[in-house]
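All the exercises in this workshop are built on plain-text protein records. A record pairs a protein's sequence with a compact description of its fold. Read left to right, the backbone structure tokens trace the chain's path through space. Once this layout is familiar, the rest of the handout is easier to follow. Here is such a record, shown just as it appears in the course material:
>
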Amino acid sequence: MPFERYVEPGRVALVADGPLKGKLVSVVDVIDQTRALVDGPGSGVPRQQIRLNQLHLTKFRLSYPFTAPTRVVRKAWIDAKLNEKWAESQWSKNLANKEKRAGMTDYDRFKLTAARVKRNRARTAVFKSLKVKAARSGAFGKKKVPKTPAKKQRTKKAPTAKPAKK
């Protein structure tokens, strides 16, 4: 699979490190091999330079000219409805779930474990009943192959009584 997420003007990225961690920014210009000029008008990030190893590139890309001013970036951000698209993405949902789990108390974790046990027991009971039903109908488990008639065993012929020599 070829690489598809390039550091380019308009590429939307998630800040992974530093004081802006978790905020969305858009790359406005590439300064050098390790830094980029970013702007995040939709997420409250002022225009600034940031190291590329602090960014996680997303699949989203805005369309605006090279080194565009903040007002142009803001207009492209709003026109693309980037905040709504980000909220619907699986990446955003996973981050939200991670925050929820981090904020759980001991009792919340206990309740979650109890609910999982209850769910898994119900799931296992249904699976076993379906398995038994399928086994009875012959659709699951060892196939019932009709037995072939047994072959006659080869035996030596009984010696016939030869006439005695006189």
Q: What stands out?
A: The longest strand covers residues 24-30. Residues 104-138 form one domain. The chain has a mean pLDDT of 90. The chain has two domains: 11-103, 104-138.
